[in-house]
Design goal:
- It is a single chain.
- By secondary structure, the chain is mainly α.
- The protein has two helices and no strands.
- The chain starts with a helix and ends with a helix.
- 0% of the residues are buried.
C-alpha cells in the first residue's frame, strides 16, 4: 500500500508528460479550426462554380 501512495505522489509531481498533452491539445484545436474553415471554403467554392455555370448557360442561350 505504501508503494501505491508513493507512486501516486510521484505521478502528481511528475511534469514531463505535461508538454505532450499541451501540444496534443493545440494540435486538436488547429485541426478543428481547419475543418471548420475548410467547410466554409468548400461551400464558397461550390457557390462560385454554380454561379459560373449559370452564367455560362445564360450566355449560350
Amino acid at each position: 500500500m505504501a508503494n501505491m501512495k508513493q507512486l501516486l505522489k510521484n505521478l502528481i509531481r511528475e511534469e514531463s508528460g505535461q508538454d505532450l498533452i499541451e501540444y496534443a491539445l493545440v494540435a486538436a484545436l488547429v485541426g478543428l479550426g481547419s475543418i471548420a474553415s475548410m467547410n466554409t471554403l468548400a461551400t464558397s467554392i461550390s457557390n462560385t462554380f454554380a454561379n459560373i455555370g449559370t452564367a455560362l448557360t445564360n450566355a449560350v442561350s
